[in-house]
């Protein structure tokens, strides 16, 4: 390497201060404090060494390129760039926090980044691509994930349960409990911290009904539909069988009525062999003395009364079957 080339490379290199944020994200104010002028920042961006990911926020261009290859990292990059210039008074929240935790959502999330800012220091007006909420942020409601400040899983669930539909709140609550990201005690503690917030009674109802055994959004919606249609609450994820042993685990069981309900997800029977396996399994369950009812997402969401009627008819048939076989 020639001396001029080596000198130029040395001039182009820059040691960025360690911010502790996701992707070591840097704000203009931090750059200036570290002795990197605004003109120098513009030069580094022009030369492709830094990338400006939002107004006044920068990250290594090479790292930004890598992060764009993964949906979760792309979301994290966007989220971090929104809260980086806002200091300690704003965190990622609501649907964006839920996505970062990997929680199930009933509806496709908005493309906007959701944040919560503390009252008194922030306007409710959101900038493009950002959905701002204004609410208190007690220290116990805030955590950090991948260097990004966000609401805890419990606070995220309560926020969504009180601001969205009951069904949407139940889906995210069941998901958080199933993944052991929170507990009912922690959810109740968040509710107790915020007694005058709007929508809190709905959130409390969601928490009371939530169940870690619901393994999908479809199962969460089914549980709600059963209740709304006046069916008794079923047991979830129960191993059942007959005289020849356990047949398998079923989604819902009404033990008293010898009735099983199974949800049929879109990908449950992708192949003929999988469909044949389910038919054989259903036959074994019926041989063991159980009634079996299947339903799909469309059926439970668009015609829940018809699904409930099918289950009630199975109850009647189940009453007439022989004495119960083994139920684990």
Beta-strand residue percentage: 15-25%
Question: Low-confidence spans: pLDDT under 50, at least 5 residues?
Answer: 1-11
Specify the structural class. Answer: alpha+beta
What is the CA-CA span between the terminal residues?
74 Å
Tell me, rounded to a whole number, the average pLDDT. 89
> How do the SSEs run, as a string of H and E?
HEHHEEHHEHEEEEHHHHHEEEHEHH
| Largest sheet entry | 4 strands, mixed
* Number of H/I helices: 14
Rg over alpha carbons: 26 Å
Explain what the structure shows:
- This protein is of the alpha+beta class.
- It folds into three domains: 16-67, no CATH class; 84-212, no CATH class; 218-319, VSR Endonuclease (Endonuclease, Chain A), CATH 3.40.960.
- The chain has 14 helices and twelve strands.
- A four-stranded mixed sheet has the order 9-10-11-12.
- Strand 2 and strand 3 (57-60) form a beta hairpin.
- Helix 7 packs across helix 9 (184-193), helix 7 (153-163) crosses helix 10 and helix 8 packs across helix 11 (217-228).
- The longest helix has 16 residues, at 272-287.
- The protein is elongated and about 85 Å long.
- The N and C termini lie far apart (74 Å).
- The model is unreliable at 1-11 (pLDDT under 50).
């Amino acid at each position: 390497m020639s001396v001029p080339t080596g000198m130029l490379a040395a001039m182009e290199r820059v040691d960025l201060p360690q911010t502790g944020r996701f992707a070591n994200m840097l704000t203009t104010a931090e750059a200036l404090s570290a002795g990197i002028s605004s003109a120098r920042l513009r030069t580094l961006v022009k030369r492709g060494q830094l990338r400006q990911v939002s107004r006044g926020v920068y990250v290594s261009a090479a790292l930004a390129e890598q992060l764009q290859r993964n949906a979760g990292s792309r979301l994290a990059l966007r989220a971090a760039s929104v809260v980086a210039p806002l200091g300690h008074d704003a965190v990622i929240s609501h649907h964006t926090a839920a996505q970062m935790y990997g929680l199930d959502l009933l509806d496709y999330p908005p493309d906007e980044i959701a944040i919560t800012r503390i009252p008194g220091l922030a306007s409710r007006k959101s900038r493009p691509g950002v959905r701002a909420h204004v609410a208190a942020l007690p220290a116990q409601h805030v955590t950090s994930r991948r260097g990004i400040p966000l609401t805890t899983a419990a606070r995220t669930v309560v926020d969504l349960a009180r601001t969205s539909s009951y069904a949407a709140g139940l889906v995210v609550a069941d998901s958080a409990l199933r993944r052991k990201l929170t507990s009912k005690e922690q959810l109740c503690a968040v509710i107790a911290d915020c007694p005058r917030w709007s929508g809190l009674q709905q959130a409390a109802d969601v928490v009371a009904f939530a169940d870690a055994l619901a393994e999908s959004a479809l199962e969460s919606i089914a549980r709600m539909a059963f209740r709304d249609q006046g069916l008794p609450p079923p047991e979830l994820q129960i191993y059942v069988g007959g005289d020849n042993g356990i047949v398998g685990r079923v989604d819902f069981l009404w033990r008293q009525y010898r009735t099983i309900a199974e949800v049929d997800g879109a990908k449950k029977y992708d192949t003929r062999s999988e469909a044949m396996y389910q038919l054989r399994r259903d036959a074994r369950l019926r041989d063991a003395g159980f009634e079996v009812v299947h339903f799909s997402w469309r059926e439970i969401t668009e015609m829940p009364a018809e699904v409930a009627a099918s289950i009630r008819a199975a109850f009647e048939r189940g009453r007439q079957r022989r004495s119960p076989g083994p139920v684990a």
